[in-house]
Amino acid sequence: MKTDLIGPGEDNEIISDRPSDRYLTGILFPARTEVSPEEDDESAEADNAEFTGTSLDGIKTASSFRPSSAGLSFAVQPTSSRASLKISVRAARYRIADTEPDGDGATQKRPKLWQRFPLNGDVELVLSDCEAAGLKPVSLAERGIPDASLHIRIARWSGVLLVTVALTNDARPAKSRSRQANEEAALFQVELTVSCLDCYFVPKPDRSGHAELDDDAKTSALLYRDVRQWAVGHTCSAVWDELEDDSVKELSSSWLPETTVHVVSAAGDVEFKDDAARAPLGADWLATEGREALSAGLNAFVDAYSHWISKMESDLGTVPAESADQGKTHIARCREAEQRMRRGIALLLDDAEVLDAFRMANAAMALQYSWRQNPDPPELSWRPFQLGFALLCLESIADDSSPDRESPIRN
Q1: Which residues pair with 404 in a beta bridge?
Q2: 3-state secondary structure of 152
Q3: Across 367-391, average pLDDT
Q4: What share of residues in the chain are helix, strand, coil (percent, to 5)?
């Protein structure tokens, strides 16, 4: 996929397509290169009422420009006065390949071929010099990449240096309206790599005021409190390899970022491994069990959830101070959900119609599941969160006057 979308197939490849037709990303165009009308899908949809939902949905991009710069922002901790960054830039430009004449010396008209010319440039920048020099661009012309420059911005924050490194395509096409000239001026397969000398990378500090975050942002900060952000990308993404000693030696740009997404088990935590807590997960069991056994099993299931809440509550002491209040809010919401489940169980025992409807629903689902060919597992078993949600909603569904009917369900 990377070869198809970014390229190249080979270092010095010759291709028959225009480079920007073959490769769709990883490209820096000359400044102020406009998006052509035939490539502007939003412009076409702007005139189509079927696609235009609001006055903002169908704005034409007549003044939209293709990207001409990309960069990385990160934080470093200097260890000496000569702390520096080594920045490696990799890219390529494509040129029209020479057309070979036929045997009789005549040159027939044939499709244009484009040849790739790799460009590599390395720069070492002393941080203190860059800080003193301000925002003066660093030309890459003498380092192997003509018509390109690096822009460095440095700011001090809480004892570390916040650094932004950006690459710009400074080429000016010979003919501003010529697509061939724009193709030849564009930088393809752009890659930035940054490493430290006499300094080391540190996770980017959180510069947002925690008290000003909304509830969703506070929840994210709590859930991802152990995830460290070492860099952010501009136009592109930022990637890195975190070593066993929790350090990062190199940062890179990426146009197709990758990450490992760990599997989350739908079976629930260890509290739901107990036989008493797992028995109520069977749809047949819920449809056929007697009232007393049903009550005992469902209460054992909610007890498992209650034990899990207590375990999470005991971990609040390890939560950073700025997220402690949000952690308490989550625990309170979990306790509220627990009580709603218990009220649902009580309603099953007190209202024969609700109990019959509950049993019939589980019997219907179990029957439908049995019609599968070679079902695995052989009988329908609810996941803990599914049964928990059903119990949580039960009272508010059956009772028109339930206060929970209008209250949102929060995690």
Answers
A1: none
A2: strand
A3: 94
A4: 40, 25, 40
**pLDDT higher than threshold 80 for residue 11:** yes
345 and 295 Cβ atoms separated by less than 8 Å: yes
Closest CA to 83 of 193, 196, 247: 196
Total-model pTM: 0.77
Nearest Cα to 344, choosing from 390, 386, 313, 311? 390
Segment 399-402 long-range contacts (CB within 8 Å, at least 24 positions apart): 399/347
Tokens 């975050």 -> residue? 213
Backbone angles phi, psi at 390, to 5 degrees: -60, -45
Are 76 and 102 a contacting pair, CB within 8 Å?
Answer: no
Nearest to 61 by CA among 84, 33, 93: 33
CA–CA separation, 361 vs 340, rounded Å?
Answer: 20
Give the whole-angstrom CA distance, residue 167 versus residue 72: 9
What is the average pLDDT across 390-396? 95
Are 18 and 114 in contact, with CB atoms under 8 Å apart? yes
- Does the N-terminal peptide bond of residue 375 adopt cis geometry, omega within 30 degrees of 0? no
CA atoms lying within 13 Å on the CB side of residue 54: 2
- Sequential DSSP letters for 247-282: -EEEEEEESS---------TT-SGGGGSHHHHGGGB
